[in-house]
Amino acid sequence: MSVQLIPHPSGRSRNWYVRIYVPVEVQDLVGQEEVRRSTRTANRTEALAVGASIEAKLRAEWRQLAKTKANAHAPRDKPLPLTPAAIERICASRLADWAMTDDDRVTIGIDDEDEAKSKQHSATVSDDMRSVLARGPKSPDWNHVAEMATEYAEDMGHRVAPGDPLLPQFVRAFAQAERTAQEVIATRNDGRDASFPVPDAPGEKLSVMIDAYETHRKGVVDPKTVSKSVSIWRRLIAFLGDVALDDVTSNDIYRFFHDRLHAQTDNWSQGYVDGHAKRALREFFALARTQGRAHSENPLDRLETTPKLPKKEQEKRLKPRHPFTTEQLNTLFASAWYDLENNYLRGKMTTDLAGRYWCPLISTCHGLRVREVVQLVNSDFLFVDDVLLVTFQTELTGNDEDEDDDALPERKLKNTAARRTIPVHPRLCNLGLADFVRLMQTQHPPGTPMFPSAIPEPGGKNPVWGRAYEQAFLRHVRDKLGFGSGYGNHSFRHQLEDRVRDAQVTHGAWPAGLGEFLTGRHLPRAADRSIFREQSSAIEYGDGYSPARILRFVDQIGLEGVVFPPPYAKWLAREAA
Hints:
InterPro entries: DNA_brk_join_enz (IPR011010), DUF6538 (IPR046668), Integrase-like_cat_sf (IPR013762), Integrase_recombinase_N (IPR010998). By secondary structure, the chain is mainly α. The chain contains 21 helices and 6 strands. The chain has 4 domains: 1-75, no CATH class; 78-202, no CATH class; 238-317, no CATH class; 326-572, hpI Integrase, Chain A. Strand 4 and strand 5 (387-392) form a beta hairpin. The longest helix has 29 residues, at 44-72.
């Protein structure tokens, strides 16, 4: 149990409050999703102790409510097999519950009548447990203690089957824990000091999975994806505490998602909870089970639903990605980004005029992902029968990877479909791209980056191509041009896909799969499936379309109404078009 302290909601009091989420199954009975109680102290250490006491009492009440409701209405969960670790964990929890309950009794104090009742209860329970431990299943108290043990286990989310082969072992362990607790209480009732021997819950903690997961995923997916998943796991630890892996229940996951959806800052969207967050947590627990660090069921497998935001709130949290309109492209090409007399840019983009000029234009004509354009090298281009081709690939042709001092960082593509060779749009050649490529190929060795600003700084932990351009361009369109959120480098890709669709409406449907091939997709967007021809699994075989033969289709991608900047040579010379 992890106590969550919060300040007074309105700030009128310095005292800490404890926030406790009501279990989903009794929210309809309690009438609210969370409860806040004052600890009546501004001392955080004291507040944690008081908060734990408050939470323990409320949860005891809610467990009873849930039990009553479950017996009356709800179908019971499937039994879970007992294991030695599960038995140890349940019994440790029982001792911890007794410790908390009796610590409260001692702290608050009791009168003569309560003291007499406590002594009588301890004596009776001790006798029952002694009988079970001495006589086993033949004890007249066996069935009573077995029922007590299995009910407590079910309260912890572990329903025990009546015929479980470890049930006798569990009942005896539970009886020993109960007898130990009553002996401590009896000692305290005699006025002597005694402590509960509460063992640590067995099993490894949540935190051990961070290094294990990073090792498991290293080199399989990009570091950003690993970091995002680890961040989710760390948030779970911050919410629950660094508890044992086997102690996490589906209700804990539900409460965690509820907290993230309703957080005051940095809250999650519904799609993020139902998508990446669920997948990441499921994978962490699956890895823990596979490596023998956890033995209970994966709590994500028992999470049959997630908390939901109202539809309007879900829509508000969506992060839309808008395509550039023709008017917006014209605004961009006429803006300070292309005004060399008004060079307001800073850093690498101040000197990398080629990247500044060509990256937006190539992205406009080919709808590239930002990493595809910034990591281009001169050997990615090839002239075949006067047709300029470009290959999007991760190999650095001609670059000597053995020379560590000169080695470039690894290039990456989103997926296998992104690797393709296509003809360069004629409009780009008219603007001078073919001449620029020839210059780069004659003056520099193969494997030389086309845009120097795209090369990551040496020594970085996770080097990313083109960060300087990516961030500068985003700030320009979002803030300088005032396009707002939803616009950025991805907007080139979305506008190009719209133009590919329009080209097929105007000129007729292209050969099956060609539209996806040009933009580096496996499948068309849902919005385009009524326009594009169906493609079969044949797209998975061979090298795709012959690049030179699809030039006429590329030329059909209309750019009517787009006012481009002057050709590259004139732009560099600061001449008018």
